[in-house]
Amino acid sequence: MKLVICEKKSVGEAIAASLNVSNKKQGYMENDKYIISWAQGHLIHMLKPDEYDPKYKNWDLDHLPIIPEEFKYAVDENKKNQYQVLKSLMDRNDVTSLINACDAGREGELIFRYIVNEANCHKPTERLWISSMEEKAIQEGFQNLRPGNDYDALYESGIARARADWLVGLNMTRLFSSLYHKTLNIGRVQTPTLAMIVERQDKIDNFQKEKYHLLHLSLDGADAVSDRITDQAQALLMLDLIKGKQVTCSSVSKETKKNKAPKLYDLTTLQREANRYFGFTAQKTLDLAQSLYEKKILTYPRTDSRALTSDMEASVLEIIDAIKEKYPFNKCASFTPNVKATRRTKNVHGNRRKLRNLPSLRE
Description:
The chain is 38% helix and 11% strand. By secondary structure, it is of the alpha/beta class. Among the domains are: 2-159, Rossmann fold (3-Layer(aba) Sandwich), CATH 3.40.50.140; 213-245, no CATH class.
C-alpha cells in the first residue's frame, strides 16, 4: 500500500478520480493499492523567536541578532487534526512507502518534507512531478515516479529560502522598528523590490526634458529621418549642406518577416498584465491561477516555464479544434498547429525541469 500526500484536498480528489480511488474516509481516500490524503498548505511552521525563549516577546536591540542554534518546527494549531490523520496513515503497518504528490516546485517539496520530518517517518518515498491536473498527465506521472531523494537539492533550496526569510525578516524588522519607534516590515524580497520602485520613481520625479532636432529627407513615397541631434547649430549646418540637393536611391531591398506567436504566460507576466488591465494584486492573480489549476483549467502556475509538457498534446489539439472556426481565429485560414517543437533536455533536479517535446502554438 502506498500513501499519496497531496498539497490540498482538491488536488487529492482529482488524483483519486484519476486512479479510481473512491472509498472515502475521514481526511483521506483509499482502495487496495493507494491511500490518498492531503495537507492544508503548510501544516508545519518554523517557530517564532518568542517560542524559543519568552524574552524575545520584547523587541529589544540587545537581543539582536536572533540566530537559533537549531531551527525548530511545530504543527500549526489550526491544522492539527489533518496532521494527525497523515501521521496515523504513515504509521500504518500496511503502508510500505510514500508518494510526494504536492505541487511540482520548491514549496510543494518543503510542505511534504516538513510533514514527514515532523512525523519522524523513514519509509521510502517517491516523487510525482506533474504540471497539469489532466487525467492523462496524472496517470502518466504515476507511471514515471522518481525516487524521492532525486529532489533533495530542491528541498535544501526551499530550506535555505525559508531560513533566509526568517533571519532577514525577523531580525531586520525588529532592528528598524526599534530604531525608528514604529513598525517597519523588512523582507528578503520585499525590501529590495521596494528600493527598485523608489529608485524608479526618483528618476521619474527628476526627469529633465531634453530638446533635440531631426532632419527629414522627403522621398517619393517615403520619409528618411536622421538620428537625434541635440546641438541646434550642428543640425542647421547639416541642413545647409543638403538643402536644394538631390539624392538618388541606388537600391531597394524587400524582406518578408514572420513573427512567431507569443509564448504562453509565466506567472510573473500574468501578474503584470492582470495588474495592468484589471488592477489585481500579484497575490490575487496567484490565488486565482492556483484555483484554476486545481480545476484543471490552467497548468501549474508557480513556475517560470512558458511551454506545455508533451502529455498535454491531445488537449492542445482539442482546444485548437474547438476555437479555430470562431472569431478572430477564423481569419487565419492557413493556420496549422505545431505541437512537436523540441527543446533542449535539462536535468530535472532542483529547480530545473525537463524540456523535452514541449508543445507550442505556432502559425
